[in-house]
């Protein structure tokens, strides 16, 4: 027997529940529904939630709106203590495919977290500029094999352009 999702009012009540597990479930369900930019004000409080996973979900939801004007809301989360929030910002920047982000994205190629470097390589690849291969070449010798593989893949694709 499947259960139907809780009514919207129950979700809203759960958003202020002191238990992180309850809030996280409510945020996840609610954010999945909020792909309309009119709901952006509802997401803003979650950018500063004490739970890193909730902040991450809020960053992801705002990133899915693919609005360049929202990047100013996301950019501070490049310094978030939760890796998933940081990753979500990098992914949002990649989805925007804005060449003006190259300086910020290239600065992330030396991030201590391999996942951030990996997603920065991927985001730079989405800009589809063959000149960016010089930025990515040092990552062919990255300490993490996954970053090396992504750099190799993106460099090949950019050279094929």
From TrEMBL:
GO terms for molecular function: oxidoreductase activity. Transmembrane segments: none annotated. SMART domains: EZ_HEAT. InterPro entries: ARM-like (IPR011989), ARM-type_fold (IPR016024), PBS_lyase_HEAT (IPR004155). Gene3D superfamilies: Leucine-rich Repeat Variant (1.25.10.10). It comes from the Bacteria. This is HEAT repeat domain-containing protein. It comes from Reticulibacter mediterranei. The lineage of its organism: Bacteria, Bacillati, Chloroflexota, Ktedonobacteria, Ktedonobacterales.
């Amino acid at each position: 027997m499947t259960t139907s999702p809780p009514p919207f009012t129950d979700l809203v009540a759960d958003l202020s529940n002191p238990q992180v597990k309850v809030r996280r479930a409510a945020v996840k369900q609610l954010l999945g529904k909020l792909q309309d930019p009119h709901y952006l004000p509802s997401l803003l409080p979650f950018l500063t939630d004490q739970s890193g996973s909730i902040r991450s979900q809020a960053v992801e939801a705002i990133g899915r709106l693919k609005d360049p004007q929202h990047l100013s809301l996301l950019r501070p989360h490049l310094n978030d203590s939760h890796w998933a929030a940081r990753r979500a910002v990098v992914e949002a920047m990649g989805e925007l495919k804005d060449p003006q982000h190259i300086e910020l994205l290239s600065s992330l190629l030396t991030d201590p977290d391999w996942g951030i470097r990996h997603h920065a390589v991927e985001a730079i690849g989405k800009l589809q500029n063959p000149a960016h291969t010089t930025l990515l070449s040092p990552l062919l010798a990255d300490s993490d094999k996954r970053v090396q593989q992504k750099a190799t893949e993106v460099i090949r694709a950019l050279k094929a352009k």
